[in-house]
């Protein structure tokens, strides 16, 4: 028996790379991240013990946000860095030490493939999915800073309309912690649209314990940043994704000069 027999590779064969990029040489100051873009599961992990229905629910990924992110990135010629694997394999917006990094339970669903996971197996998921994604974001940001490119980080997410039985009224929310510059402007623009219910740090706020991308890549570098959460029932289909992408494109284009003046 060889070492390889004892420790089969988590990602192998036809498993795609975790990092997906669009407009990598885009001219926009906006850099979009999408931690919960995809819902792939490495072949070595099978289906994590979940049926098809569970693997398509919000617990597995951010429903609808991939379509929005692709359109916004293309229209603004802005770099998008996204992650293809399910948040149930490893959540790329959680510190790896958090209990919810590889969740044994998500909302009310037990994830059989995550029960009693060995430290080695957890480390392997981190090394092959979490780390390449965040390393790539860091490389891109390092290079932009070196090249003197203005950079604004927008972390795109979507949220389930009902969580643990409680309905969420907001259509869209800005999420932030220490840096209020972009959220303040974004709230002003979103609240100018009378049909929208806008969340200010709703349905949740950013924190160091429950988030990774904004604290590490935005706040620690002093880059202007925000999270954006869109309610999933509004972007389930293509027309909803297009409509919400168009709204974000219009607003971010309008805000760009104001933001450049702050950099
Ligand atoms: Zn998300």
pLDDT average, as an integer? 95
Helix content: 25-40%
Low-confidence stretches: 1-6
Instruction: Assign an overall shape.
Output: globular
General description of the model:
It is a single chain. This protein is α/β, with parallel strands linked by helices and 263 residues long. 35% of the residues lie in helices and 17% in strands. The protein is built from seven helices and eleven strands. It has helices at 3-6, 52-56, 65-76, 119-146, 181-191, 213-219, 238-262, and strands at residues 19-22, 30-34, 79-83, 105-106, 109-110, 152-159, 162-163, 166-167, 172-175, 198-200, 224-231. The protein has a seven-stranded mixed β-sheet with strand order 1-3-2-6-11-9-10, with helices on both faces. Helix 5 (181-191) links the parallel strand 9 (172-175) and strand 10 (198-200). Helix 3 (65-76) packs across helix 7 (238-262) and helix 5 packs across helix 7 (238-262). The protein starts with a helix and ends with a helix. Residues 1-6 have low confidence and may be disordered. The chain binds zinc ion. Residues 35-36, 62, 157 line the site of zinc ion.
Keywords:
alpha/beta; seven-stranded mixed beta sheet; two-stranded antiparallel ribbon; globular; disordered N terminus; binds zinc ion
Write the layout of secondary structure elements.
Layout lengths: L2 H4 L12 E4 L7 E5 L17 H5 L8 H12 L2 E5 L21 E2 L2 E2 L8 H28 L5 E8 L2 E2 L2 E2 L4 E4 L5 H11 L6 E3 L12 H7 L4 E8 L6 H25 L1
């Amino acid at each position: 028996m060889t070492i390889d027999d004892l420790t089969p590779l988590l990602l192998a064969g036809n498993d795609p790379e975790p990092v997906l990029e669009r407009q990598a040489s885009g001219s926009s100051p906006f850099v979009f991240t999408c931690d919960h873009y995809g819902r792939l599961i490495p072949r070595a992990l099978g289906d994590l013990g979940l049926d098809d229905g569970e693997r398509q629910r919000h617990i597995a990924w951010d429903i609808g946000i991939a379509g929005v992110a692709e359109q916004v990135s293309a229209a603004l010629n802005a770099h998008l860095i996204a992650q293809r694997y399910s948040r149930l394999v490893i959540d790329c917006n959680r510190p790896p030490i958090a209990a919810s990094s590889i969740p044994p339970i998500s909302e009310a669903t037990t994830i059989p493939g995550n029960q009693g996971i060995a430290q080695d197996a957890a480390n392997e998921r981190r090394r092959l999915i979490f780390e390449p994604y965040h390393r790539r974001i860091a490389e891109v940001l390092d290079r932009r800073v070196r090249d003197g490119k203005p950079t604004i980080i927008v972390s795109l997410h979507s949220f389930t309309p009902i969580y643990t039985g409680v309905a969420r009224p907001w259509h869209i929310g800005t999420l932030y912690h220490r840096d209020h510059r972009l959220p303040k402007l974004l709230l002003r623009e979103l609240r100018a649209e009378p049909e929208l219910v806008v969340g200010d740090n709703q349905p949740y706020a950013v924190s160091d314990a429950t988030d990774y991308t904004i604290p590490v890549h935005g706040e620690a570098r002093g880059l202007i940043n925000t999270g954006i959460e869109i309610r999933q029932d509004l972007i389930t289909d293509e027309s909803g994704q297009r409509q919400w992408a168009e709204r974000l494109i219009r607003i971010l284009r309008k805000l760009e000069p104001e933001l450049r003046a702050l950099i």
